[in-house]
Amino acid sequence: MWNTWLTRTLNIDLPIIGAPMGGRAGGELAGQVTAAGGLGMIGAARYATPEWIDEQLRVIRAAAGGDAPLAFGLQTWSLADSPELLDSVLAAQPKLVSLSFGDPAPFVQRVKDAGAVVISQINSVDDLREVEAAGVDAVVAQGGEAGGHTGRIATLPLLQEVLRATDLPVLAAGGIGSGAGLAAVLAAGAQGALVGTALLASPETIGPEYAIPALLKARSVDTVYTDVFDKARHQPWPTRWFGRALTNDFTERWHDGDGVDASSSTEEAVSAAYDGAMPELGVVYAGQAAGLVDEVRPAREVVASIAADAEARLRAVAEVLG
């Protein structure tokens, strides 16, 4: 039996949370992660609507049962402009809410008053200090290996730094795509992990039809940390967060390859060249764990196999000490 702050606090079987991937993690994926014993999160991105939230609730209840615990991930930087989104999330009586990418202080107490556990994904120790002051219950050290929007510090250095700097429970995210990865962060001191890219070839994901085939072909080197897709789609993300996505013809043309986008590329030019319906141009956000994903597997099976392998590896590691 798993025994971490995460499993005890949320009363779940496995120390695994399905990452709240905007545009990919809806009710079906979240429901299957929860049904496997973890906790699936619905990615309520800035373009989500109350109607979309209601639909995902119907889906997750069908997938995991009417009394299944609910969890949502919100983009804090955009919440002030979308108060109805937080209203809809809290009306669902979630067990956990992630307030990430920006100062969560204006929203933390309201989420706690609704009875939910509050976590924040952080990308630096400065972020840690900000969310600690806001009163969150736990933090997620999200490394730059993660898919989608993330920071620039790798998971293992960031996790070690955060563990040393706080007494809050710490989870890990970024590059955790197998039981070996989960075992590694738990052994380091994390209380659980967010898993995202490993679930992206599951049939329960939402998103464009080309996303799964593109991921299955990708290797771990076939990602890029870029803001060209934000420019292309006029997404007003704060400039400190770029997104990690699979490389394709669009990134080959518009990204300069050095981790900083070409200053000569105007947003208008990038947007005019973009077509999200075309596989060679559209965005597929995915992390460096892409090289571990080589077949279509149900999310419930992915989660169960990660947990079982992590347990076996941790038991084996215990024998190293004789």
From TrEMBL:
InterPro entries: Aldolase_TIM (IPR013785), NMO (IPR004136). SUPFAM superfamilies: Inosine monophosphate dehydrogenase (IMPDH). Keywords: Dioxygenase, Flavoprotein, FMN, Oxidoreductase. It comes from the Bacteria. GO terms for molecular function: dioxygenase activity; nitronate monooxygenase activity. The keyword Lyase does not apply. PANTHER family: 2-NITROPROPANE DIOXYGENASE, 2-NITROPROPANE DIOXYGENASE FAMILY, PUTATIVE (AFU_ORTHOLOGUE AFUA_2G09850)-RELATED. This is 2-nitropropane dioxygenase. It comes from Tsukamurella pseudospumae.
